[in-house]
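User: Predict the complex with uridine-diphosphate-N-acetylglucosamine.
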Amino acid sequence: MPLTPHPDVAVVVLAAGAGTRMKSATPKMLHTVAGRSMLGHAVHAACGIRPDHVVVVTGHGKDLVDAALDELKPRMDKDYGVGSIDTVVQKQQNGTGDAVACALQSAALADFTGTIVVTTSDVPLLGAEVLAALLAEHSAKPRAGVTVLTTMVDDPHGYGRIVRTADGEVTRIVEEKDADEETRTIREINSGVYAFDAALLADAVGQLDTNNAQGEFYLTDVIGIARASDRIVRAHRLADPALVAGVNDRVQLAEANRQFNRRLREMHMKNGVTMTDPDSVFIDCDVEIANDVLLEPNCQLKGSTSIATGCVIGPDTMLENMTVGEGASVVRTHGFDSVIGAHADVGPFTYIRPGTQLGDNGKLGGFVETKKAVIGRGSKVPHLTYVGDATIGEESNIGASSVFVNYDGVNKHHTTIGSHVRTGSDTMFIAPVTVGDGVYSGAGTVIKDDVPAGALTVSSAKQRIIEGWVENKRPGTPAADAAARARTGSATPGTDSDK
Ligand code: UD1
Ligand code: MG
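Assistant: Here is the predicted structure with uridine-diphosphate-N-acetylglucosamine placed in the model:
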């Protein structure tokens, strides 16, 4: 549910940093938490409060970040009615203060006079509700000049510390690298998220310098500057530190994923989903699961997967961008970009590749692989079969060990099978080929030519039997010995009758 709009608010998302501690060719903010990039989480939170403007500061890995933003834009419009996201480039990453200075020069913010929320692209659990709460605190009378989002943590290492006077007033923020021993013992930390009066921010950013341990323009110094000019500085302290945990390295990335996942699982369980072993279940943030679904151990539900009510998923199942209909059973299955119909039965050991549509009450059994296959209502592919580039009608049964031979080495071709077809085991469908309604085929048939409705097709040669061949041609082998014993009626060594 989108929150109420926040007019006169602009959100600046800082996303220009190199993220060197990730040691990655991928910019830090494009690493994912619960299946969404950290940039995506930041932009969802920013757009979620429905502000007047959203400005993203890019720099390091700009092309990749721009492409990721372009992908996010339609969804921001659809979900939150935010039709435009501006970007501004910070050419050199001279610190968070410099990044904000760049944002203030953007067309969107040059004449902006409202409240500017600054957030970062490395706090993936931060949602729009927290930004809304920060803004509520900021606007409480008398209205603050700056409100910083803080929290208490057991291990404050790496974070800026919130320094307060004896009576609790926030006076400044001191970065880890600039802090003395005593300041380092402070457990209240800066989340890196703030609300600023726009005019105050522009003025204070102009006063920043690089006289600090990292030689950077620190946005955190704005707090001290505001305070020195007697502006109201407030802190909004969050009870739950995980919501603002920053991700700077891959240990923190794993922890953010763990936390996010635990919360998602709890949300789904509270919505009526049963999990036999919740700790072994991983669910991306856009996955939808109806009530009365049972998730057995070791399941991963990714991307835009949706599971309708009454399904049993798992154990050991990975589904990505899959739509699963009501009451289906999907066991030990890998599935991508496909649809499983209501009350269908899939697995174990089934590989569903993109473009599969299994109809209601359909079946894909053990060691079956499908790709671009539309399989009609009630049709079954029970065992050891590949179905690629095919259309199968309703209530048909594909015999065990069959292959839809779709590839001639250069091009892919289509196979069309009608309804109520019964094909024998080990049938090869050499595409392009069409098999009419109600057709039967014998075991081992190679179907190269179209088969008209109602026909039986067989292609295997007449069976030959050459008596005594093994004893004649393979003398001295265990097989020849067994054949000799069978012929003479003597006992097999090692069996009960031998004793
Ligand atoms: C920052 C804060 C620290 C706070 C912590 C919370 C400063 C000086 N310190 O430290 O007080 O506790 O966040 O997680 O602000 N960025 C740019 N351009 C730059 C530098 C950074 O856009 O030149 C962006 C990064 O992409 C990132 C964000 O700003 O999204 C924060 O940068 P980061 O290097 O992670 O700062 P921290 O050391 O975590
Ligand atoms: Mg950080």
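The longest strand covers residues 6-15.
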